[in-house]
Design a protein that fits this description.
CATH class: Alpha Beta
Helix content: 40-55%
CATH topology: TIM Barrel
Number of domains: 1
Distance between the termini: 27 Å
Number of strands: 8
Order of helices and strands: HEHEHEHEHEHEHEHEHH
Structural class: alpha/beta
Strand content: 15-25%
Shape: globular
CATH superfamily: Aldolase class I
Largest sheet: 8 strands, parallel, barrel
C-alpha cells in the first residue's frame, strides 16, 4: 500500500492516529495494537519531543510499528523524516510549512501519500500545486503536544476552504478529543488526527471506538 485514490484516502483519514514514544504511558507497540483493535484508519509515526529516540533506535521503533500496521492493512505515514520514509518504504509522509519544499518532497517520494499542514488559503493553494494529497489543518483546539504550535484557529479554515470549493481530503488536528471531535466533522473535515486522546486514555481501544462512532 503506497497510494490511495482520493475517496479511499478520505475514508482513511477518519481516525488518524499520531504517536511517538514520548507520547506513550505504556509501550508504543502496545498502544498501537490497542488503537488498531479499536479501529484507527491511519497511523503517523511522529517521534518528537522530550526523550524522543534518534538514529538506530528511532529506525527500529518505526520498523516495529510499521510491521504492526502492515499486518492490519493500516496506512503507515512518517512525520517530516523523508529519508526514513524512503528507507522503510512507508506509505507516505506528512510535512509542515517549515520542512522541505512540497515539490521536492513529492519528487523524492513519488506516488506515496503526501500530507501537508496548511494554515491559510494561500498555503492550501500552494500545497495543491505542489502535489499534496491531503491537508492537516490546525491547531483546531489548544494542544499541549506541540510546544511551538501556532495560535488556535478553531474550524474557521476548514469551513473557509470548503466554502471556496476545495475538494481535497482534510484532517483536523490539535487538541481534539472524544468530546469535541464532532465539531470538526461538522465543519467539513473528513477526519480527526489525535494523539493524547488515544495515548493517554484509560483504554486506547475504547477511545478509538468512540471516535469511530462520531
Amino acid at each position: 500500500m503506497t497510494s490511495l485514490n482520493q475517496e479511499k484516502l478520505r475514508t482513511a483519514l477518519k481516525v488518524y492516529f499520531i504517536m511517538g514514544s514520548p507520547n506513550c504511558l505504556i509501550s508504543p507497540e502496545d498502544v498501537l495494537k490497542e488503537a488498531i483493535a479499536g479501529g484507527i484508519t491511519l497511523f503517523q509515526f511522529r517521534e518528537k519531543g522530550e526523550g524522543a529516540l534518534e538514529g538506530t533506535e528511532k529506525y527500529l521503533l518505526a520498523k516495529k510499528l510499521q510491521q504492526i500496521c502492515r499486518k492490519h492493512d493500516i496506512p503507515f505515514i512518517i512525520n517530516d523524516d523523508i529519508e526514513l520514509a524512503i528507507l522503510l518504504n512507508a506509505d507516505g509522509v506528512h510535512i509542515g510549512q517549515e520542512d522541505e519544499p512540497i515539490e521536492k518532497v513529492r519528487e523524492k517520494i513519488g506516488k506515496k501519500i503526501l500530507g501537508v499542514s496548511v494554515h491559510t488559503p494561500d498555503e492550501a493553494e500552494a500545497a495543491i500545486q505542489g502535489g499534496a494529497d491531503y491537508f492537516g489543518i490546525g491547531p483546531v483546539f489548544t494542544t499541549k503536544t506541540k510546544k511551538d504550535a501556532r495560535a488556535t484557529q478553531g474550524t474557521t479554515l476548514i469551513e473557509a476552504l470548503r466554502g471556496k470549493g476545495f475538494k481535497i481530503p482534510i484532517v483536523g488536528i490539535g487538541g481534539i478529543s472524544v468530546e469535541n471531535a464532532s465539531t470538526v466533522f461538522r465543519s467539513g473535515a473528513d477526519g480527526v488526527a489525535v494523539i493524547t486522546a488515544i495515548t493517554h486514555a484509560a483504554s486506547p481501544l475504547e477511545a478509538v471506538r468512540t471516535l469511530r462512532n462520531i
